[in-house]
Design a protein that fits this description.
Blueprint: H1 4-15, H2 19-40, H3 44-60, H4 69-87, H5 98-108, H6 115-127, H7 132-143, H8 148-155, H9 159-180
Length: about 180
């Protein structure tokens, strides 16, 4: 992960038209953004499309440095993922649908050497059963480790809204695990 000063320098270089700065930003933040996008979309290709839109938006934007670059990029990603969800046709498989649940359950059945990784896989699979608003806050808090304030800034919502969505999402996850015996 890049520190704030190197991100700031990269953005300044990007503003001057330095294409190597753009490649460096993609290298530093692309994988992280794809991980988040993949947990919010139906497929790898949808996640790749969302991430591509994030970097296009960065290229077109005037990042003012009022937040961390990563926070700025995740905020764009969340908006792009929401736009993609709205564009899906009703007959298409969406996160939380029966087919998506089967895929998520299958991917979570592959166990790693690390209990922490297994817990993240389980949470990712279970979060597919949440509403998009609840899934976003759970992913940003539990999988990405953002603070409540960072989540509020990323999603452009009040901190209290973050707290209530996270509370309700955790309640839903508890009900889901109780029903499934996990």
């Amino acid at each position: 992960m890049a520190d704030d000063s190197s991100d700031s320098q990269l953005v300044q270089r990007l503003a001057r038209g330095d294409q190597s700065a753009y490649r460096e930003i993609v290298r530093l933040h692309g994988r992280y953004l794809f991980t988040i996008a993949r947990s919010l979309t139906v497929s790898d290709s949808d996640a790749e499309d969302v991430v591509q839109e994030v970097f296009l938006a960065l290229f077109r934007s005037k990042f003012r440095g009022e937040s961390k670059l990563r926070t700025f990029l995740v905020a764009i990603l969340m908006r792009q993922a929401a736009l993609m969800r709205r564009r899906h046709k009703p007959w298409m498989r969406l996160p939380g649908s029966e087919e998506a649940l089967t895929e998520a359950d299958n991917s979570a059945s592959v166990r790693s050497e690390s209990p922490a990784v297994d817990a993240k896989l389980d949470l990712a699979a279970l979060s597919s059963r949440l509403s998009p608003e609840h899934r976003e806050v759970v992913i940003l808090r539990e999988l990405e480790g953002l603070s409540y304030d960072e989540i509020a800034q990323t999603l452009s919502i009040a901190r209290g809204t973050v707290e209530s969505r996270l509370y309700r999402a955790r309640e839903s996850l508890q009900r889901i695990t109780a029903r499934s015996g996990q």
